[in-house]
Amino acid sequence: MLSLRENISLLSYNTFGIALYAKWFAIPETTEDVIELLRNDRPEWKSKFVLGGGSNVLFTRNYEGLIIHPEIKGMEKVKKTKDNVWIRVGSGENWDDFVCYCVSNDLGGLENLSHIPGNVGASPVQNIGAYGAEVKDCIEKVETVMLKNCRKKVFSARECKFDYRNSIFKKELKNRCIITHVTFRLTRNHEFKTRYPDLEKELDGYPETSIQTIREAIIAIRKKKLPEPAQLGNAGSFFKNPVLNIQQFNTIRQSFPSIPGYKCEEQRFKISAAWLIEQCHWKGKRIGNVGTYKKQPLVIVNHGSASGTEIVEFARRIQRAVKTHFGITLETEVNIL
Ligand code: EPU
Q1: Probe residue for ligand 1, chosen from 164, 298, 299 as the CB with the greatest number of ligand atoms within 8 Å
Q2: How far apart are CA 43 and CA 311, in angstroms?
Q3: Domain 75-187: assigned CATH number
Q4: How far is the CA of 29 from the centre of ligand 1 (A)?
Q5: Catalytic residues, which ones?
Q6: 167-183 tens-digit pLDDT
Q7: CB of 117 closer than 6 A to ligand 1?
Q8: For residue range 209-245, what is the model confidence (pLDDT) as tens digits?
């Protein structure tokens, strides 16, 4: 059923814990609800914003338009071969519930992406990634409804134009479509991705390597290294790791030989934003109610009742420090509204 409400507090809809309001707030539960909502567009809605689990967004002011928060549920096995199983999942399912379902059913591919907050619908938008895996490698297709004509449109993985923390849904189609379902291709004969140093080390403590122990190890690492939003408001990595071309990478390595970086694609190198921030003495730093997390400075945390603008100002200061010290621009990964 479609629910449409007015003047809704966003507090429980964003992991930063920002207490602002949305003028209009709709919760569609099916694709048909999404179409019905869009067909009955109202002039007072002005702008529209699609909000998933609220784990990658920072509100800096009340939202005067319509927020659409899909709660489309369901996980359905749609195809099976000797090697793979395809599952079609509603965009409103919790991401980690889905990963847990896969691992419990011995379906592989997503175990490295365990314990990431947010909903399934957001996973292709920013091509979530962690511990040597990216969701793009398991996505078969993404089903959407286009805002301009209320029509359904399906995107193949190729059409999604996936890149590091990026996709067509974050660029050309930003705020132009609503993701209703994602179909994932999971493995039955697994290929473990265990080369990420932290993961390799953690797995040493387990008797065997399986998708189940990988999930356990990742949850253990994330619990040790990252703050739980329920205890300390945050939206995970606030910045992206900068990607440099070979000339830029060699130049910076000459001045800073210990900079952590690795080849991520042909002639391109990803360097650690956490390291850059730490070198500028912003690790664990706090100004008023805002700070960087003591164990991972890429994560900005809300220590109490910080406002969105205070958080943005804090982030700008980090960006200025990194720019001054290294000449590198840190791009934000969180969606600032
Ligand atoms: N590092 C430091 N100081 C620190 C922490 C890290 O110098 O305090 C350096 C170290 O050299 C370390 C390297 O940074 O080896 C990488 O650190 P980490 O493994 O914590 O990963 P990250 O590159 O900082 C990315 C993702 C995280 C993801 C981890 C694990 C981005 C923007 N972030 O962080 O994603 O969990 O890898 O794979 O790519 C998120 O998106 O919200 C998120 C948490």
Answers
A1: 298
A2: 32
A3: 3.30.465.10
A4: 35
A5: 165, 237, 333
A6: 999 999 999 999 999 99
A7: no
A8: 999 999 999 999 999 999 999 999 999 999 999 999 9
Average pLDDT, the chain: 96
User: Which helix H or strand E contains 254, and what residues bound it?
Assistant: helix 246-255
Of the options 3.40.50.12780, 3.40.50.970, 3.40.50.150, 3.90.78.10, the CATH number for the domain spanning 233-336: 3.90.78.10
pLDDT digits (tens, 9 = 90+) for 265-297: 888 999 999 999 999 999 999 999 999 999 999
H/E element, 57: strand 57-58
Q: What is the DSSP string of 153-191?
A: EEEETGGGT-BTTB-TTTTTTTTTEEEEEEEEEEESS--
Atom 25 of ligand 1, nearest CA residue: 130
Q: Where are the domains of the chain?
A: 3-68, 75-187, 233-336
pLDDT tens digits, 60-85? 999 999 999 999 999 999 999 999 99
Q: Cα 96 from chain centroid?
A: 12
Look at ligand 1, atom 11, and give the residue with the nearest C-alpha.
260
The residues, any chain, with a CB within 8 Å of residue 214's CB and separated by 6 or more, are 111, 112, 114, 192, 193, 194, 199, 203
CA of residue 220 to ligand 1 center, whole Å: 15
| CATH class label, 3-68 | alpha beta
**pLDDT above 90 for 264:** no
Q: pTM of the prediction? A: 0.94
